[in-house]
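Researcher: Here's the sequence for the chain we discussed earlier.
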Amino acid sequence: MPARLARPLFVLTILAGSFLLFLVQPMVARMALPRLGGASAVWNSAMLVYQALLLAGYAYAHWLGRLSPRTQGMTHLGVLLVAALWLPIGLKAMDLSPTAQPAIWVPYLLGLSIGPLFFAISAQAPLLQRWFSLSRSDENPYALYAASNFGSFAGLIAYPLLVEPGMALYGQRILWSSGYILVALLVALCAATLPRTRGVAAEPVPVSPPPTRRRIAQWVLLAFVPSGLMLATSTLITTDIVAMPLLWVLPLGLYLLSFTIAFASDRITADIQTRIAPIALLLFGGLIVGGLSAIPFLGAIMALALLFLLSVALHTGLYRVRPEPDRLTGFYLAMSVGGALGGVFAALIAPLLFDWTYEYPILLLMAGILMPQQYLVGPVRRLWEGSAQRGRILLYCVAIAVLGLVAAVLAFPGPVEGVSQMQQIALIVMLGIGLVAIGSRRAFTIAVLGSLIAFGGYRAVYISLEPGARTRSYFGIYTVRGNATQQQLAHGTTVHGTQLRGSPVKERTPTAYYVPKSGVGQAMLALPTLYGAHARVGVVGLGAGTLACYAMAGQDWRFYEIDPTVVRIARDTGQFTFLSRCLPNPKIVLGDARLNLAREPGDSLDLLALDAFSSDSVPMHLMTREAFASYGRVLAPRGVLLVHISNRFLDLEPVVAAAARGGGWQAVKLFHTPDPNDTLAATKSLWIAMSRDPQAIRVLRTYDGAWQPVKTRPGFAAWTDDYSTILPLLKR
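Model: Thanks. This is the structure I predict for it:
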């Protein structure tokens, strides 16, 4: 092959392989939704599987260096051929128990389904770089790593923007499988460029000094922090907004894009962003930790921007301490170890250790300690680089100033939501301190710690110190907060139940989205008219147990709840008394509601209320055509399905309307806005009532004339297990 074609061939092969490698991640997560649900922890568990397979692939590439170049080529082509037995790509047919532990089943199912394919493709980035250095020893192979991560970024972004909206899962599987065959052919062409040598140890023996243990540990740490921070950011923003692939891929995509910038031949962009990163950490880190619940989209944008800047800075630090090309695979192996450890910390250890996302501020602080530092202006450099005594005095001054700021904010904390005036002043002062501290690692670390505490961290600690106030499970973070008049249960920043206090009558009063004038309230009041005294009621999503207070003697109620932690809060802790006062011995079916309903006998419910939320949105796998068919099978012929679609970010009415049209349901909606005569603690709500019996809908409309027909959106296709997209549903 002509020498001038070698570099384009290697770049194309690495780009294509990395594109496939990271296209498969959101694609397989989408395939798993009907079985595993849409909690952010499911995505984090999947990411842990990917990082473990990536580590295995990098270790394999490192080991392959012991063989001659031609033997390496033949061996890797053999691995690609064996992995092709798993084509076309897809999840293994396996029925999961409704109570299956996702932390166990997600790795098992994904490893069994895509493990060999992911392993074969994951080894290519370091392996092809070494092959390139063997065939083109006069060129820098590290630039190809930037191309690899650009391909990875392109694959991630292409899925939610192009692939998912454009084709069903079957087409996606065929597309990916065809791409795998193309990549295998390109790898064969790259292998053909390897030098012909004899002997097992024909690859040149490394001549550069081996890395010290300290240097290897530095590589691992610099890779550990951005990897863990990427997963922690995913947890943070999907808890506050919505668990969906579009948001899942953004942190990972920015993380990968940071490699492209940090390892690029042109160092200008990386150097500029490395200088900006410390300032961004000081200004935004604490505010993000504080929550910004009043403006969650702004908080999400700030968190993503901070992740990107910190990742560029830390990966630039990695690039600056990279070894010579003859130690390349060992370097990437150490990076992969760090990335996998970051995933283990964020996805497995942190949820067990912490009752909140404390891993996020911990990793921010570690980033502040590890990132490259440069003095912002010359006079500051001269101050710090003077005598040792002057440096100590400056360090003490920074520490005292930061301590004073923290004390002032704690003394005047301001409102629970938003940024207080004292915090605004502290933010300006912190910027001034940063101008002095950036460049001195110890001073900057003190400033970052003070920023994290003053701008929001102290609030998280206060809540954690309050007994029973916060609980963390695999499915989310739950906070119970209240005062003398009411108690609330929140998942992330979304309230999932409010109970009035003061008397037994108040404690039995339905509130929030469930007041009598709401859609579900009207349906519950109509139960005796519709089905007599022995109505059979199912509720998907327990929350605080509010709906139990509509239960009447003779009725048969059952709740479907995926998270045992929610059951404990609603039934066992005494923090909420809806169940104990209104339905003392409720039937609660644990596990994924869709899987459990599939096991229920047909015609076993008269009314089913779908009120399952992951933070602020119904999980996608509960809104597909197949899911609605399951609901219809369980309901009696005259049964009513209530779907709660209140949402700050997505307009879900077209999804339900399309499912109703395709399934032969009549559907009406009731948007309730509280008025002065409404129940205390009432909130806005939007419920859709569906039935295959027109008479049932007419009965509901006699209770409240505000029920209106749902609006269908022209051209919008119903979601299915094989196809769904949220892009057309985003609210302005």
